Recover the amino acids of this structure.
């Protein structure tokens, strides 16, 4: 199989995309599965043209079909019927599931990092380690609120010298009742408020005790 990989890559016709290697590594795909994914990801309109795949990748027909069925079974690729440039129906292979799988993984990683950042910020501002119960509270916030909203609520708590989880949570639910879903919504809400008053500092505004 190593000889097959060598011959395939030596052609220099393929761009080996990192997300394909990532998925192949995480799912422990075989070399033939990986080669087929690389081949498909390099096609403008991926199709199961077995003869061309055999000619281009040096896999044999049995390997191609076996890997194709495995990738379909894993939900990484799927057969779809679409109209081609001539307006005729043709079978094509969709890689949308593969790309979506990678995108969701990246998004999850970003959210997890933001969550860890929030733990650190709260410990820094409160000047003490957070307890396991407080970790659970933060986890609940992160599932319900945008991370930047939590950071804004923390800033207000610090500004008002009200360093408590209860105060931060009160702010978050006040914003939720107002329909705010992001830090941008919060700032827009403040701008609307400040246009009716002389206040000019976001953290001078007491969101919790607002009439």
């Amino acid at each position: 199989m190593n000889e097959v990989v060598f011959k395939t890559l030596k052609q220099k016709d393929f761009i080996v995309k990192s997300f394909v290697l990532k998925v192949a590594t995480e799912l422990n795909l075989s070399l033939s599965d990986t080669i087929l994914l690389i081949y498909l990801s390099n096609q403008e309109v991926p199709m199961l043209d077995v003869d061309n795949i055999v000619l281009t990748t040096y896999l044999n027909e049995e390997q191609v079909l076996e890997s194709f069925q495995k990738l379909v079974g894993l939900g990484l690729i799927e057969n779809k019927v679409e109209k081609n440039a001539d307006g005729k129906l043709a079978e094509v292979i969709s890689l949308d599931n593969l790309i979506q799988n990678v995108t969701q993984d990246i998004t999850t990683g970003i959210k997890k990092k933001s969550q860890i950042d929030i733990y650190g910020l709260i410990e820094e501002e409160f000047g003490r380690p957070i307890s396991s119960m407080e970790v659970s509270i933060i986890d609940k916030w992160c599932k319900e609120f945008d991370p930047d909203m939590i950071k804004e609520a923390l800033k207000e708590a610090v500004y008002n010298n009200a360093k408590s989880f209860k105060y931060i949570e009160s702010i978050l639910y006040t914003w939720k009742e107002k329909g705010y879903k992001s830090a941008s919504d919060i700032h827009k809400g403040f701008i609307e408020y400040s246009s009716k008053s002389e206040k000019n500092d976001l953290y001078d505004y007491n969101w919790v005790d607002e009439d």
Summary: The longest helix spans residues 96-126. Residues 2-94 form a domain with the Arc Repressor Mutant, subunit A fold (CATH 1.10.10.10). The mean pLDDT is 79.
